[in-house]
Structures are given as C-alpha cells and as structure tokens.
Fold:
Amino acid sequence: IYFFVNKRWIRSAFLNQIIYKTLEDSWPKGRYPFLIIFLELPPEMIDVNVHPTKQEVRFREIYCIQEAIKMALERTIKSKISLSFEEDIPISLDTPLKTENFQVAYKEVSFKDYTPPFHILGQLWGTYLVCETERGLLLIDQHAAHERLIYEKLKELYERGTKIQEFLKPILLEVSSAEKEILEELLPHLKKIGFVLEPFGERSYLIRAVPSLFVNQDIREILLKILSDLCPFKPRKLSELLPELFKSMACHLAVRAHDILTSQEIDFLIKEIILLDTSHCPHGRPFYKLFTKEEIEKLFHRS
Structure:
C-alpha cells in the first residue's frame, strides 16, 4: 500500500490501520490489496515537520480523512470491476515503460454524506447542538455551521438576486474616509445582493433597502463591522474581495456561541445545514464532530 499526500510519498501506520479496518470483512483473509492512494489536503490539515525526511506526517481533522478514505474504499469494493483479456499480451523487458496519468476525485466529506437520520438531544453550553445518530453522538458548532449556511446563501443571492425589504424611513450610515473607500468599491456588489444605498453628503449614505436575509438586524452596526473587517484587506481583486465580504457578512449574521436557541430554532438550523456539501465553516474550521459508538464505548472499556 502506497500513500501520497499532496504529491509527496509518505509512510503512515494511521492510514494503514484505516485500510485494514475497512477491508477486514470484505477482503479474503491471508491476501493483501495493492493500493496507491493519493490525498490532496489543505496545508493546514497536515504537519510535515514530524520526521527529518518528511516521510511521515501528522494529520489534523483525523475523522474527516478517515471517513473520506473509508467511503472511497467502500464505494470501490461495491462497484463491479471486470477485467477481461481475449489473448495473452506479450511483454518485452526491452520495451520502454509507458505511464499514464490518472486522478481519483477527492470530495470533501460533507455533513450530508454519511449522517443518518438522528434524534436531537438539545444544546450544550449554549454553543453546540447535540444529536444522537445510529453511528454515534454528533456535536455541531452552531456558529460555524450557521456561518457556512449563510455564506452559501449569500453566494446564491449574488448570482440570482433576492427579495428586498425597503425601509419607510432610510437608515443613515456615516463612515470614515478609509471605510468610504472600501464601501465605494463594494457598492455595485452590495447592490447585486440586494442592498440599496445612496450617497448623502461627503461620508454618509442612506440605506433604503436590504436583502430579506438582513431583515430584523442592526443593519448599520453590521455594515460598519463588515467595513472594519475589509479595510485592512489587500490586494482588492474582486475574486479575493468577494469571498472576504461574504465571510464577514456570514460571521456577523450567524448565531453566536452562548446564544440559547429554542427547540424550533435548533430543528430548523439542523434541517438546513444537513443539506450542505461541506463540513467546514468559511474560515476553514470544522463545524461538527461525530463520536462513534465504538469510540465512546472504548472510553468506558466496553468491548
């Protein structure tokens, strides 16, 4: 079995253990598979400084990596692979070796990929949502999960537009010179999301409408926080600025840690995030962790 992480060959007892554990019930005993596994991971998920020759690495987000490998192996085993040869193919040792590139698509393990129906138990420390599943105990970081949900909705609003809420009385927004500079740059993009702002004096604007997502929010305070987040951001290429805008908006709109949610709010939030195709917030933090039944039973020395 050979492992390559970000195109670098490594040795890993941890990955070997995942392979053999996954195959133990489906692979003939006494026989060993030939596997070459390529992992493409964000740099922050691995630590290459644990071995002088960098042939070993330490993984972060171990559970996500473990589940991705298990899912890939299980799908491969279940698929029907048939190799047939009509005639023997002569092989000459003098023939130059021909190689072809191939890729295995790596898909980030998402919340919906392997989360079965579950029973919501409640909220822990006003920060984590707790659910019982067939596979174990699920903890969800409510802020990080809600943040990702809003981030995805903002991207959709930018592409498709949205309903807006007009104010009977516009809200006055006063900004600094630095904030005005970034706001002027953002105005056409804010308009695409559903904001209607018009200049009102040298460093003032009237907020006449907002997207429905921002209704019942302190819109002046949120916009000032967003401008504060984005003022230091350079360079300001649109491809880099927009994700930062959406990240900042999502962060300030999302429920916070220590916000006490009602059972209806928890139920609604989970039903929304279960549809996400990712397991991380826009800043890269995982928003949930599944503690399997086996892991929990090991804590109590149960066999």
Remarks:
- The radius of gyration is 25 Å.
- The domain at 114-303 is CATH 3.30.1540.20 (formyl-coa transferase, domain 3).
